[in-house]
Here is the input.
Amino acid sequence: MRGRRRLFGGLNFALRGGDLLRVTGANGSGKTSLLRILCGLLSPVCGRVRWHGGDIRWMREEYWRQLLYIGHAHAVKEELTALENLVVSCTLVGVNVSREQALEALSRLGLAGYEALPVKILSRGQQRRVALARLFLSEKIPLWILDEPFDALDAGAMDYVRLLIAQHLARGGAVVLTTHQEIRIENPQVQCINLDSRVT
Amino acid sequence: MMYVTPENTTAGRDRFVGHSSWFRYSSPQTFFPLAGKLAPWFAVAALLLAAAGLYLGFFVAPTDSQQGEAYRIIFIHVPAAWMSMFIYVVMTFWAGICLTFNTRLSGMMASALAPTGALFTFIALWSGSLWGKPTWGAWWVWDARLTSELILLFLYFGFMALQGAIDDPRRADKAGAVLALTGVINIPIIYFSVQWWNTLHQGASVSLKSAPTMAATMFAGIIVMVLALWMYSIAVSLMRVRSIILERERDSQWVAEYASGQT
Amino acid sequence: MFTVLRCVIYRDLLLASRRWADVLTALVFFVIVVSLFPLGVGPEPNLLRTIAPGVIWVAALLASMLSLTRMFAADYADGTLEQMLLSAAPLGAIVAAKIVAHWLVTGLLVVLIAPVLALQFDLHQPLLGTLTLSLLLGTPVLSMIGAIGAALTLGLRGGGALLSLLVLPLYVPVLIIGAGSVDMVAAGLGAEAHFLLLAALLVVAAAFAPWAVAAALRISAE
Here is the structure.
């Protein structure tokens, strides 16, 4: 529920390794709320989310160790450099990255030469890429939940992110994402949930 | 592997439906009529007890040897002070239930109790002040018990202000609950302050372990007034929680039916 | 887990170092408030000596209240707080790390400057030492209790005033005991009891506050 409005209900699905779940719906239909529920940031009015059999409410850190969430907000500190931001956000999730690995991730996303600059002087698209650089370093994290990952990206960066997602699915990881764009990912195991039809 | 399942709809939350008759009332919808039926009884009890208590206090109890007639304010001051602390503890209890079990009604109950608790705290401070002027010569002193009672008043205000500032009722309930639980440490401080610090406020004359050190009628008067205020708190809180229920659940079916039944 | 905590403390200190202005605001406020009192109450030395501990303690309290919003508001606004909520380390531990970092750039600086300011009030040893020690024990408690308030009022309108109202009743005992310790020594009695009480408050706050703050953060971020 948001305020007094019931956003959606009656959702029932299972996600397996290698699956891609795409959530669609008009603006305000609750896509971000659903993703936050899946992360455990928001508790649903009723219903349960289970990971490998355990309710995520009780699993807490154990679940979050296996989750990568990149939300709508960039989640980068403006005063820190791109490199510092990346190292901090990876460490928080328990992924220890070396400076070299972080530098490589940034250059893969086209930010070579920008690592030592404070993020506040980067453009919005570049800031998004700093946030998404985590994807390159998160191979071992099984579940990726991405809220509008392609937002503000140019075509080249979008292609690269698609590639990262496809590689992750091929490795057996699972991805949940929302997007307005078309996902051209070669993957037969795509589930789709449209929230517009779920309001009752 | 991730599974997402809905539980059965709105009734799913009231997990104990059908298992036990008391838990049936943990749903706002079923508690609403119960509260409506009980409140008048408590109100009547409060009126009768208050009448009896005030009669005992102002007419029957003997004049105090040291303080004369001014001491009679004790029959308002002490019950109000005790109830101010007691209500806070009860509020904290409901706050704890709200956080642990994530139920709606417990949060509403805590919110319903707060204004009454604040009122009694204010009455205790104000009546104490009226009493202090003739006996101590001052409207206010910064002794341990008065200061901690004043802190209690600010805790109540903070609780109400915090809940008022948050639009989402669920977040308001839970945030208020955390605040109430943090502040509960103040209650033992108020209670034991007269033992721990040698200050102006008189020590405890009534304790659970030994016989009271005051005349029997005075003691009876105080106890009756405590019960009166207790009944009053329950009556008022039940009525207040009914308003809160109506406001929170205003979009649901049963409230619409209730409203159309009223008009 | 300790890698994460070290990372959080380092991050917060780094951020504080890049936003000097915020850190200095609270500190300058502290200095100004303390310095205004002699101007307001007159220069009579005995009076100043008597009010000094109280004035410095109240100023420390106010400076602490002023700096509290900084603890979580920025992280909440740019989304980094969410990431902390989803961290692999317990949120209580992360919160404790943030509080430590916050204290290092607020409370600790107050403790270091206070003796210098107390000289304005003609406060000598042993009162100076007592005051500093009481602040050293008390300011962490203020940071911890204040963090609870800051977490509860995240993103609310009327934030600063509401936050002050919430933490004020919880700050008062610390103030009374802290300032009282100096008065005790001034009266010729020992202040051990007061220091023990402050230390007890510190331990209790350190044990419970991080979890209260963590709970409050999750509630506020929902």
